[in-house]
Design goal:
The complex is a heterodimer of chains A (241) and B (624).
Chain A lengths: L1 H28 L10 H32 L17 H30 L6 E8 L2 E5 L10 E4 L4 E7 L4 E4 L6 E4 L5 E5 L5 E6 L12 E7 L1 H8 L10
Helix pairs in contact in A: 1-2, 2-3
Chain B lengths: L6 H26 L7 H20 L3 H7 L27 H30 L9 H34 L8 H20 L16 H4 L3 H29 L12 H33 L20 H35 L6 H14 L15 H13 L1 H15 L8 H18 L2 H4 L1 H4 L6 H31 L5 H28 L17 H32 L30 E3 L13 E3 L6
Antiparallel strand pairs in B: 1-2
The chains are: A alpha/beta (241), B mainly alpha (624).
């Protein structure tokens, strides 16, 4: 048993070291696009939280496994069987209950985040989007003008009201993080607040037929004045919904 | 011996005749109704339905029941068919579970190769950005086809393992219902042939999930695809019923459920899902099929301002029905593989399985929780927002029983006397790969972190890691492990280790690469991508994924070559080369027609390596 204590200590140290190494690798390798919406903040924080747990659990399992492979490999000329034990109820309960607590904690974290990023804002600008095979129409409520380019005001909460002419589509701007399917026969909504002026690409990420690959549109996030000038009218603000 | 004495040939001929009969029937009915005689969609649909029956009838899978209806006796025939070479039994209806197990396995590997080839074709297209040689139409066809052929291959693979091993592990003479067992296998032949031929009549271009409205308006290939899935689904249902009855009813005296080999528990949990969830994918595809053929508007929202008459269907309803099977289906795919891991680890560690009951019950827990998590595929679908919260918590719960398995495997390794023959290497590879798949799950399970990753290559990477870790690696481990039992000869160990050394790192590169490009913003199911993603590094990643894919393919071919060679020239393996305690290793290799010469007596526990008392012994002649 004393022997085991030494091994457990070594494993503990290795797991800690590897957790940091793996997290560093994950952080370096997983290149998310730059964040350009208010909602990206809490989402990216949750993702970071996940990456830490991934790094820890990966290290835990792999370190114990590889350590065992070296420690318990059969030596030349050794014909004995392994140690005889059937299990350990305390351990089993422990590794049932602890993960349960962790996942519920993550569920709670994600619940508050989800409520936060989908919350209605007071001064929302409503923009209509219509998806079709294979392109996009954008308009403002109470306006006949239709554009194929999505122009949005910076630092303003946006609510996209989206419909489809034909099949399922999806609204996704990677820099804004959030996405939402567009479903024929109903209107779906997506809320986000762009934070950085610039050009982005809107891509459909629900397979929609032959030219799904090409169903993209340019998104331009501009100053609020420029936005008003672009539509040449007062910006409609949502009062309800 | 004529070609027609091969059941497979009769099945294919029967399928073609059935197709023609169905088409003729459709034309006849249409003429009688005063409609134009030829309409492609109904003709192919009815033809496909008849073709399934034609194939079953042609091969003779139905003939015993037909004889019963006429009041004829059908004594159970044992051994190879009379007057034909012994190998022909593998190409026809045979009631021996060992033959059926081989049939399942070989047909599964065949489909694995077809589906893998398709993947390599579109991986080549994706190796660099820009469109090279695949048309958009073929590209969309291949991705869906790759998906469903692989699903068939996996179902056949687990069917092969379960049918071959479960009766042996229980010391049973055969499965509970041998005729149903044969029928269950033969459903797969017309089913997969329908799926493959759908490519030649227009294909189907909505991906393996076939979401309407897209799937309700595409080419006729959809109908063949739907009916192919229907046939394979029937195989799942009758096969799982058979396995459940076998496990519950055919255990020898003294083998309580908690004394079974652990693989039987995995099969039990899998069969529960297969028996109760498969109907839902059949239903969802049948509804799309009738929407196309008969104008039923289940999923058709109709034009804006639609009334009840013009259509008030809901596309999201399909997604609920589809995922109610297709999520539990991934547990169907992985549970037997995880069972193989638990089964082999004690043999190569030379010590008892750590926490047998916990592992057994965690399979059941995964099966049960698996039924209430389908909505996580629909986080972005636009269903009621409250469902996102509910499905988030239920989904996260899956991590708990899965974690129990991992920790119990580590407990099994601890204190063992480990040796690293090819099956053990594949088991360890499976754990490493399934770990990647498992750990990339919760980040997709919490809605906010799912939103940027949903429908990207991150999901593709996650999903392939669970399939390779949960099925492919354990399946290969099982093939290497039981190869000496099936053939009596040992596979080539060096080639096996080379296969492992090529495939495992290649798969790590593939799956981690897929997750990497997904994070950069690479969507699923696109034939071309923006080369500036990931700061311009995405192309190099895609090239690496493609090369890794080819290496995996090469490894698989190496394995198949190894098996063909070794079956001829391999060294004789003896009855129990692994010194396993399991019943099937206590009888001769290859196994005689009647597996057990005398009844099994259970003496000890299945994994008590280190104790002199065996798990099972055989009653002496004349003993009761």
């Amino acid at each position: 048993m004393q022997n085991n204590t030494r091994h457990f200590a070594a494993i503990g140290v290795l797991v800690v070291i590897f957790t940091f190494v793996i997290f560093w690798i994950l952080d370096a390798v997983l290149k998310f696009p730059v964040a350009a919406s208010v909602q990206a903040g809490p989402i990216d924080a949750l993702i970071q939280g996940h990456l830490w747990v991934i790094a820890f659990l990966f290290s835990l399992v792999v370190v114990i496994m590889v350590y065992s492979l070296f420690l318990f490999r059969r030596r030349e000329g050794d014909n004995e069987e392994g140690e005889y034990f059937h299990g350990n109820t305390t351990l089993e309960i422990l590794w049932t209950v602890l993960p349960m607590i962790v996942v519920i904690a993550f569920g709670y974290w994600a619940t508050t985040t989800l409520s936060e990023i989908t919350q209605r804002q007071d001064n929302e600008v409503i923009v209509n989007a219509e998806g079709y095979q294979w392109g996009w129409n954008f308009s403002l409520p109470n306006s006949d003008a239709i554009t194929q380019e999505l122009v949005l005001p910076v630092d303003t909460p946006i609510r996209m009201d989206m419909t489809s002419k034909d099949v399922l589509h999806n609204f996704w701007v990677p820099e804004f993080r959030v996405k939402q399917d567009i479903v024929p026969g109903r209107t779906t909504y997506l809320r986000f607040t762009p934070t950085t002026e610039g050009e982005y690409t809107l891509i459909c990420s629900e397979l929609c037929g032959l030219n799904h690959t090409g169903m993209i549109a340019t998104v331009r996030v501009v100053s609020q004045d420029e936005f008003a000038a672009f539509w040449n009218q007062d910006v409609q603000t949502a009062s309800s919904k | 011996m004529s070609l027609f004495s091969l059941g497979l040939v009769r099945a294919i001929v029967g399928q073609i005749l059935g197709m023609l009969t169905g088409m003729a029937t459709t034309i006849l009915i249409r003429v009688m109704l005063g409609l134009p005689a030829w309409a492609a969609e109904p003709a192919w649909t009815v033809g496909a339905l008849f073709s399934i029956i034609g194939a079953l009838w042609g091969v003779g899978a139905l003939s015993d029941w037909a004889k019963w209806m006429k009041g004829e006796e059908t004594p159970m025939h044992h051994g190879p068919p009379e007057g034909k070479p012994a190998w022909t039994r593998y190409f026809g209806v045979d009631y021996n579970h060992k033959v059926i197990g081989i049939q399942y396995t070989v047909w599964g590997i065949f489909l694995l190769l077809v589906g893998g080839t398709m993947a390599l074709i579109f991986r080549t297209e994706l190796a660099e950005s820009g469109r090279q040689f695949l048309s958009l139409e073929l590209y969309n066809n291949f991705i869906g086809m790759h998906g469903f052929i692989m699903i068939f291959a996996i179902l056949l693979g687990i069917g092969g393992m379960a049918n071959y091993l479960v009766p042996l592990m229980l010391g049973a003479e055969d499965m509970a219902f041998p005729r149903l067992n044969a029928l269950g296998f033969w459903f797969n032949v017309p089913g997969s042939l329908l799926l493959l031929t759908s490519l030649f009549i227009g294909g189907w271009d909505a991906g393996w999930t076939a979401y309407p409205p897209l799937s309700a308006r595409g080419p006729i290939g959809y109908q063949l695809f739907f009916l192919g899935v229907f046939a394979v689904g029937l195989s799942s249902i009758v096969g799982s019923l058979n396995l459940l009855v076998t496990i519950l009813q055919m255990r020898p005296k003294g083998m309580s459920l908690f004394k079974m080999p652990i693989f039987c528990w995995a099969v039990f949990a899998t069969s529960l899902i297969q028996l109760t969830a498969t109907q839902l994918i059949g239903l969802s595809f049948l509804m799309v099929s009738t929407q196309r053929a008969l104008g039923m508007g289940f999923f058709d929202p109709g034009p804006v301002g639609a009334t009840l008459m013009t259509g008030l269907g809901d596309p999201i309803l399909f997604q609920h029905l589809f995922w109610f099977y297709s999520h539990p289906a991934v547990y169907i795919f992985i549970l037997p593989g995880l069972g193989i891991i638990s089964e082999l680890l004690p043999v190569f560690s030379r010590k008892p399985l750590f926490g047998y009951k916990w592992i057994a019950l965690s399979s059941l827990a995964i099966a049960i929780v698996g039924f209430i998590v389908w909505g996580h595929h629909m986080f972005t679908s636009g269903y009621a927002p409250v469902l996102r919260y509910a499905f988030m918590y239920s989904t996260l719960l899956v991590a708990v029983p899965t974690g129990v398995k991992f920790f119990s495997w580590l407990g099994t390794l601890w204190g063992g006397k480990l040796t690293f023959e090819t099956p053990m290497l594949f088991v360890l590879g499976a754990i490493s790969v399934f770990l990647i798949g498992g750990l990339s799950g919760p980040i997709l399970g919490t809605v906010p972190s799912d939103l940027p990753l949903h429908d990207t290559y991150f999901v593709v990477g996650h999903f392939h890691a669970t399939m390779f870790g949960g099925f492919v690696f354990p399946f290969f481990a099982a093939l290497y492990f039981w190869f000496p039992k099936v053939t009596g000869r040992m596979y080539n160990e060096t080639l096996g280790k080379i296969h492992f050394a090529i495939m495992t790192p290649a798969f790590w590169v593939q799956t981690l690469g897929q997750m990497g490009v997904g994070v950069m913003g690479m969507r699923r199911r696109i034939a071309d991508y923006d080369p500036t993603l990931g700061g311009g590094s995405i192309e190099a990643w895609h090239l690496a994924i493609t090369i890794a894919g080819f290496l995996i393919g090469f490894g698989v071919l190496l394995m198949i070559w190894n098996f063909f060679q070794s079956a001829e020239v391999g060294v004789l393996a003896g009855d129990n080369p692994w010194r396993s305690r399991s019943p099937e290793w206590q009888i001769p290799s290859p196994i005689p027609e009647h597996s057990f010469a005398s009844p099994l007596i259970v003496r000890g526990e299945p994994y008590d390596y280190g104790l002199p008392e065996p798990y099972v012994a055989f009653a002496a002649a004349g003993d009761d």
